Amino acid sequence: MRVRTFTAATMPDAMAMVRAEMGEDAVILSSHRGKRGVEVKAAAEKRPALDLEDVDAAYSRLAALEAEFERRLIAAVAEPRTGPSQTAPELWTDETVVARLMFHEMPRPLIERLCATAAKLSETPGPTALAQAFDAHLAFRPLSAELEKPVALVGPPGAGKTACAAKLAVRAVLAGRSAVLVSTDTSAGAASQIDAFAELIRLPVVAGVTPDALADALAKLKSDDANRAVIIDTPGVNPFDRAESAQLRITLEASGAEPVLVTPAHGGGDLEDHALMFKALGAERMIVTRLDIARRLGGLVAAASASGLAFAQGSASPYIAETLEPMNPFALARHLLTGAAEPVLPGARG
Q: Are 210 and 333 in a shared domain?
């Protein structure tokens, strides 16, 4: 497998470099904007050059391959395979792309903007063109594994903040840093939940249930080990409750940490309101959870578009061993166009 990183001024230029160097079968692994422009990491099957130093050996290998191919062909004709055949890659059109985005219940004006941009950036509709449109309209900024600055996970109740805190701690440890979990959640069962996660990954938990206690705890942690990754788990907040939002703001000010929104992938139009309200509290990035149980992601894309929040990581599992994956425009486009189940048409139910 060959892996290459390409840098260009724009996403279309980077994609052109990928195709020219690695062919149409190259798989996009990640993409982000750096100081030098757009950086795209791509992979393709390695094609070693034929060793011509021993011509006789080369011809012998070729003859053996031809004989094996003939044997398999005769066997296939004699006993046809009964398993499912592979379907040909789908030929995308503007209409099929729009239909998929409508299935995801994406707002029509947003679909029109994305499709118009995709048409300008690529002559062929499909996941690659949609990814380029996502790159133009949405932000993608994954959290680094090292977490040089403390992060505070914020979000509505039940979004999966505590599990994400544990996963971020695991990533930091695997990257060679020590880590600590800080809990500010005083709700029933919160302490036992984070303690259970911490015991599984063998990391300490520090409590900071008041703003003053939190500030003191963080100051001590910094004095003990300034290079330690600090992940703060905050209580679930109803963004429509002014008192809860005000208390969260005080907690964030005491911590000095970067607030990162943790939001489930499903939620429809409410996700846009949540994103805007947590953006007002200082969040600039979001971690998306429950991608494994979300069929329609239009509300999530609309939330990112309306709020300007950058996609950081995504989670398709509640299990700590299955870590957070960086989100990029190519992965999001593939998930929207090829990862969703087919809609049930009216009258199709039995």
A: yes
